[in-house]
Amino acid sequence: MAGDAKKGLWCRLGEVREVFHSVKERLVDRINEGFYRYTLFVYDFPCWFIWVPVLMALLMGVGILNRTEEYAPMKLYALPDSQAMKDQARLTELFGTMPRVTYLLVEGIDGQNLLQPHILRALNHLDRQVANLTVTVDGETYGYEDPRYESVCVKDGTGRCEHESVVQLYPPKEWKTDYGDDRNYEVDFTKSLNYPYHLQFRLDSSWSRNDSSLIRWPVPLLAANVTLEPEGCIEGCKVKAAEALLFRWLLRREGSDDFWDPVLLAWEQAWLDLMWEQMPVFEEIGVRLVRNARRSIDDELEESTRLGLLDYARYVIGGIIIFSYCAIVNFSTTPHRSKSLPALFGCFAALWAVMFSAGLYHSLGFVHVPTIAATPFLVMGIGVDDMFVIFNSYALAVKVTDPRERVAVAIKDCGISITITTLTNLIAIGVGASSDLLSIRNFCIITFLALLMGYFYALTFFLASVCLDAKREAAGKGPYLETWCNTCRKRRRSSAPTPAQKLAQPPPPPAAEEHHDPEQPQPDSTTEPEQEQEHHSVSISASHPSTPSRTSSPPPAALDTFELAALQLKAQELTIRQRRASTTSTTSTTSSSRQHGCSSGGFFGVHLGYEDGWDEARDGPMADVEEPVGTVGRKVRWAFRRFWGRWVTIPAVKVVTLLLFAGYIAVSVWGVTRMTTGLDLLWLTPEDSYYRVFWSRYFTSFTSYGEDVFVVFPNRQEWWKKEVREEYMAYEDRLRSGGYASDQVFSGMYEFY
Asked: Which residue has the higher pLDDT, 133 or 481?
């Protein structure tokens, strides 16, 4: 009973499978028939399908004028709901906008000691230039330490600008209380620096120590590659020499909560320009200046992603390469079979798709992100691929003599393939459009629109050009452009002959008279574009022994592209083995079997046998399955049939192929396990970016320390209680003693208690 129930279940499942298979077959047939009828309609009105899509692209392309750009790294590459962004928002809420930090790395060329008096005096002069640097924005002047103007520096509790540099560790020879115009104060650079801490007042532009705090400066944060004396000491040392120094300026405009305040941006730009001017001056004394402002990363990312003249030149060169490749590959030495002109239409179809989608994208209010620069190349590649698929199907439909039917049969055979690949691409890109990263989401949105429009333009603009070219090819030899243009001006007559016309048609000629030179133009009765035949009554050049009468059954339907390719492969294999049989001395049995196309077998032999041989009554003459000379792609298809198509049936080749694929999968899996998440904006900058150079040299010189971090206590604390303060200091001691933090970092609040 259990076995019968199980058998009944499998039977029901088999019935369900048959139902689904039947539904699928009917659906595919309906889709193919839809492509067939649609192509016939396009063939009848090709010019409408050319200029209307072009007009649509031009009108929608006006939306590109609404383009707005976004280059801020935090908006492009950070997750809006990530913990880092939440912490940043909380930090801004508690303490306002964070300071903007500007760095200057000073290096001695060839390891030169930077603590020499003449170098320190030059750096001190540069430091004073920065302190007195001013900018004018909207008619207002702003400076760094100049008390005559509104300051853009971050100030400590004493009102001094929080500026850190080695020159501040040296005391002046005399203290000043007035500002004056002479800012080149004499500094005693003969003093030695203590290591690892050096006590010194934080000075302002007036070099006054009034109300100034005495700071314990951490020397390792300001000087690197130092030489200490006595040699090998750890505490209580003196700095004898240093090969790298670090200057740091903190910027913030009082009363402004805008991190991208235009005043701060202007001052940073003025600072960058000043450092650029001073670089050759310092190189003369053996000193290298490496600059880095807060705006540097934004400027460099924008520079690397914004389209400039060189980028547009690359676009033009890339377009020329793609257009030239498509035109050359589809060129034929037989002029009337050349497809270079419709190939250019296929390239333009992709460009129209990009223009339409870009205009629609910006009209909907989406911002431009750097990753969109890759969209035109992606759409062009996929659009050109669809073009080659259509051309291949058109070439394999060569036995269909009616140009209207030939184009329809070609699109019927490849239309569903193009549709499925387009849907696959759209689904993959559509999933990416759900990303939280702005740079990825907007890229996927515009690429989705472009691929969708690429499919539309392939089946309108490009397909119409194929229809016109099919008419031109059927017209026979003649001036290429003249015959091409003439086809667009002709009006098509009805393709369905009346019953009287059918009876008036002469019977087909005998088989011996049907053969003709494939290179010669077709007779007028079959090649004139305005004289068409009925669907499913198209000649395929398959002769039969007897001449059919008027009352006989209609000729067989035209082979589709897949059937023709299968017959080509069969004819090739049988021909190869017949030649081998005629050139080798074997037994009669083996020779007979080879003549019928039996496989040679074996682990290293080709397994592509046709035991039933070639039946002309069923397959037609073997010579008729060959493509005419000059058909685009003929030699490439022959090469794949002749070589890889046969080799892939060899068991040894199959095993090697599977092993290579298994190795590829293994390497891919290994690579996935080695993959790390995260994004360093440094990787996105140009290779020669001064921002990248700065951080590379910084981490080379200052090897012990990384970037600054913040520890924030967002909740209210009862700091007036002794136990709270002691707990806080104990926590900071634990931070100092950790191997991941520097013990030379201290907080002002810790010092107060």
From this structure: 133
Evaluate if residue 636 carries a pLDDT over 80: yes
d(C-alpha 102, C-alpha 72), whole Å? 18
The label of the residue with tokens 């691409």 reads 425
Rounded Cα–Cα distance for residues 668 and 613 (Å): 45
3-class secondary-structure state, position 138: coil
Q: Is the separation of the CB atoms in 153 and 145 below 8 Å?
A: yes
Contacts of 380 (CB under 8 A, 6+ apart): 319, 322, 347, 350, 351, 354
CA dihedral angle for residue 15, residue 16, residue 17, residue 18, rounded to 10 degrees:
50
Helix (H, G, I), strand (E, B) or coil at 273: helix
The four Cα atoms 746, 191, 111, 218 give a dihedral, to 10 degrees, of 0
Q: Identify the DSSP state of 649.
A: T
Contact 489, 421 (CB under 8 A): no
Question: Residue 69: helix, strand or coil by DSSP?
Answer: strand
CB distance 347 to 328 below 8 Å: no
- The Cα diameter of the chain in Å comes to 124
Q: Is 237 helix (H, G, I), strand (E, B) or coil?
A: strand
Q: What are phi and psi of 303, to 5 degrees?
A: -65, -40
Burial 430-460 (b: 16+ CB within 10 A, else e): bebeeeebbbbbbbbbbbbbbbbbbbbbbbb
Closest CA to 747 of 161, 103, 223, 157: 157
- Please report the sign of the dihedral spanned by the C-alpha atoms of residue 469, residue 471, residue 473, residue 478: negative
Tally Cβ neighbours within 10 Å of residue 37.
Answer: 13
Phi, psi of 435 (to 5 degrees): -65, 150
Whether residue 593 is predicted with pLDDT greater than 80 in this model: the reply is no
Whether the Cβ atoms of residue 508 and residue 381 lie closer than 8 Å to each other: no
Long-range contacts of 235-240 (CB under 8 A, 24+ apart): 235/196, 236/194, 237/194, 237/195, 237/196, 238/192, 238/193, 238/194, 238/195, 239/115, 239/192, 239/193, 239/194, 239/195, 240/115, 240/192
Distance CA 254, CA 270 (A): 19
Q: Is the pTM of this model over 0.70?
A: yes
Q: How far apart are the first and last CA of the chain?
A: 89
Residue 121's H or E segment, with its range, is helix 117-131
Closest CA to 531 of 407, 404, 395: 404
pLDDT (tens digit, 9 = 90+) per residue, 303-349?
777 777 887 888 889 889 999 999 998 888 887 788 889 999 999 99
SS3 of 9-38: HHHHHHHHHHHHHHHHHHHHHHHHHHHHHH
Using N-to-C axis directions, what is the helix angle for 340-363 and 438-457, rounded to 10°?
A: 140
Beta-bridge partners for 135: 142
Q: What is the pLDDT of residue 666?
A: 96
CA distance linking residue 753 with residue 745, whole number of Å: 16
Contacts of 184 (CB under 8 A, 6+ apart): 125, 128
Question: 3-class DSSP state for residue 73?
Answer: helix
